Every structure is written in C-alpha cells, then in structure tokens.
Please model this.
Amino acid sequence: MMSDQGVIWPKDDFSRVPYRVFADQSVFDREQERIFNGPVWCYLGLEAEIAKPGDFKTTFVGNTSVVVNRAKDGSLHAFENRCAHRGATIVREPFGNSADHTCIYHHWCYSQQGDLLGVPFQRGLDGKGGMPKSFNKKEHGLRRLKVASYRGVVFGSFHADVPPLEVYLGKAMLDILDTLFQKPVEVIGYMRQRMPSNWKLYWENAIDCYHAGLLHQFGTTFGLFRATQDGGSILGEQSGLSFCYSIFGSDDANVASGYEGIEAFNADMKLNDPSILEYVDEDGDGRGLIIMAIFPSVVFQRISNTLATRQIRPKRPGEFELYWTCFGYADEDPALRALRIKQNNLIGPAGLVSMEDGESGVLIQRAIERRRDAHSVIEMGGTGPIVDQDHLITEVSVRGFWQQYCDVMGYEPRRGDAA
Amino acid sequence: MSNWRDATNEVVNLVYDYVQILDDDRLEEWPELFVEDGVYRVVPRENLSMPHALPLIFCDNRAMLKDRVLALRTSSVFNLHYDRHIVSNVRVRGEKDGVYEVHSNYALFQTDLIEGETKLFVTGKYEDQIVFRDERPMFKSKLVILDTYSVPNLLATPI
Model:
C-alpha cells in the first residue's frame, strides 16, 4: 500500500516519525476509522465500576461516546451512545443504574444490549400518524461493540474480526495484568487532564524509558527512580503493546557515577517529609515501576504503590483527554490504602513525577504544527530491529508503537533506508 | 460581640492573603499559613462524593507543603505562567471550639508567559477551617474543590 496524503515515513525501522501525523485533520479522521473502528481492543473501564446488575458507565472509543452496561445476568454489553432515530446522545450521565436507556428527544427506548424496545406512538394516535407498517424495531438497534474482560479489565471492539482478547494481549501483557489485578480492585477516584496536544505524543511519552529520569527530575532529585536502576522494556507479540519496568533500590551503589555531570542530582537534597517515598514491595519482585501500554487506548501503571489505568481519549488532532482511574485492592488494610492515596501525589495532572508530561506534549505540539514535513529522530537504544531491551536507556518500544500504528493505518515506510 | 467581629475580619483576611501570596509567587510563605499538622487537599468535584474523595494534591502536614514548594523550585517542569486568583462570596459559616468554618468561591486565571494571553484555568470552592495560634489566624485545613475536574494540561502551582 502506498503512503498517502503526504505522510512520508523515511525509514523502515520507524526511527523517523513525520510531524504531520500529530497535526493533520485527515490523519485524525483516518485514525478514527482504521484504528478505533478497526481490529483492536479498546479499554472501556473496570468491572468494579459497574459491579451490580443495571450499572452502567459512559466512556469513549477514540472520540466516539460508548455506554457499557452490566445486565441482569451479570453479562457485560456496550453500544455506541447515539440514538438510531435522529442521532442524539442517549445516556448523559457518567455513571448510573438503569434497566434500560431512553433518549430524551423522542423517548425511543433501548435495552442494556442496545436493542430498540419501544417507539412512542409507533402505531400513531386515533388512527393518525405513526411509523410505517414496514418499520421493524429489530433493524434499528444501536451499534454494538464486542466486549471482553480479563481480570476485571473491560475492553471493547467495533470490529467483527478482532482476535480474542487474550490472543490480542499476548502472554507478556497478560502476566502484567495478572500482577496488577491479582485481587479484586476498588476504584479510589479519578483524575482528568485536558491536554492541548496530539494523543500520540502522550503515547510516545508513556512508553519512553529514556525520558523518565531526565524530564521527571523529582524522581531523580529525591531518589525515587533513576535511569541507573535495573529495568528494561518488553514488547508484546504486537509491537504496539509493551511495558517497561524498573527495580527500586537496585542501583544505590552507582547513583553518583550514573549521574555524573547531571546537575539536578544532589545526594544531599532531602524531602522534609519523606513518607511519600515509602515503598511497600507488594509482590516481592521489587518492580516499583511498571508502565504497560496496550495499543491504542490505555496505559496501566504501578508507580511505587500507586495503581492506575490511564485512558487516552482523542478529541481533535491537537487535543485529547487523559483519564486516570486510580485503584487499590478491595481487601487491603487501611494503612496501605492511605499510603496509596498519599502516593497519588506522584501521579496525575499535579503529579510530582507526571506533571511534566503535559508540558513536554505542548512544547512539541507548538513547535511542529508549522513543520509538518519534518520528522523526529528515534534512535536511543539502537536502530533496526525492534526488540526487547534489558536497560532503560532506550526508546525502542516507541518505534514498536509506530510499527503497529503504520500497519493498522495502512502506511508503508520507505524500504531499504534503515540504518 | 466585638471579638467575634475582629476574629471574623482576621479569618476573612487570611483567605485573601492566601491567594495574594500565591499570585505574588511568594510560595515559600504558603506553608507558613498552615498549622504544623495542617491539611491541604485539591479534590476534583467528581471525586467528592466517593469514600476517599481522592485529591490531586494531598498534604497532611506543613512539611509536605514545603516539599511541594521545594519540588516546584528545584525539580518540577511546568508551564511558564502567572496566576491570578479571584475570590468571592467569602462567608464565615460558624465557629466551634475555636475552629472557624469559612467558605468562598474562587476563579483562577493563568497568563501564559510566552504569548501573554490570559485564560480561565480552573474554578471552584474553598472550604477552610481556620484557627488562631499566638493570635494569628492559620489554616487547620483547606479543601480546594475543583469544579474544573478536567484540568487544563497540568496543575503545578497551588490553588
């Protein structure tokens, strides 16, 4: 397939990304069609959010509003939140409980599965008006998504031929979900950010191990994490799925050498109240940092003892919403819950190790919009094959994201130009 | 009683002094407006009704407030901007055991230092508990309710 609409990929190892993909409306529209309506699984939420029969929540797949329901028999269902009649948004509340859903406009009523149940005055009134006899409610249900859940994490897909969820995720990612969702979870709260930048800039950021200890100087300065810690990045069978991890406390001996010449590291700099740095090794694996990205819609994280999903909701080429769902385990003791809540100071829009991500996205968006034919350079960790890394000085998984992105978007990079 | 009037004047002044200190970028003075075990929480309005009312920023003592300032001054990277708080509808709701309940509304505008343009950043409500220490009013607790629970990009400097 030809590259089109002027989206040129100069290298076939995805070490060059054309800035056009962050700015063009045509690219954005194509993403909605090919990615978010394509053969992928998108994050819808957590089962814990819709625990009881009749519970529902509204969410997004790409920029399309979607309703997720739990039916009487406990099964999960999702449909596009758009009335089959005249197109009005049906469900307006973020959360609720209801046996069915009625559009406010003409009171067309739908089941939790999205079937059209009732049309007021379908047979008219006193022999006048009404729908034609040929009108068949069965033909006017809502557009449904396939829904699947793994360890209480709910995904949906608009595409008929999407592989089974567990095949899509692959073993490496399932292992991480097994860790993060090892026990039933409870949602602690939400954090939202409206980002004035392209959603894929955040995607690059989330899986970029290289930036963590540099952009986020709080971690470096006060000893939370450093690039000298043991860690790495692991790719899934599909390269748009990956996670990076680091082992807390693994580098105490070489901190100074690892940060020679970097001004911000100061072994004398201490917090007045270091309780925020306390870390409980819940699994005994020391993985104080796990960031897993599941193409194309969600990042799962454990940073110290904070647990969260981060849903990426594209709005326009230059805007997306980042929707954090912070959780803990339903049976955890109050002290651990309190520690998680305190550590949530680290993450979210005001997070001591995450606020910078908003600023870096804006700085890029501002600079590239007028330079759409130029491209970024992604070579840290090497060029060529996209493979697992056993260290943190790498951005190879960012190339992995672009590989899957191009595959789904139908973009073909230039051949034979790889370094 | 005139003591009540004097006291309420002082607690109301604290609410105004607080935002002026922030707007003047005198962040080092900000923790000093709280008692030693003072609590500062910025809570998105959608979280308020949930059991933990999860805050975006949560400091449960003055040392943590100082650490926020330390981070902003030494390690955090955020948008270059001026803050301007507008506070209105300040009401002293009552006093019990020396704790004054003071509610007010705020709007926080940010001016971007690159372009010089001003935008409404966030708006919401303050629910303060104010006590007197050595005849000086101080925050025992400041709850910042964030109506704008989808934060424009990032939240660095305190509200």
Remarks:
- Chain A touches chain B through 41 residues (CB under 8 Å).
- Chain A has a mean pLDDT of 92.
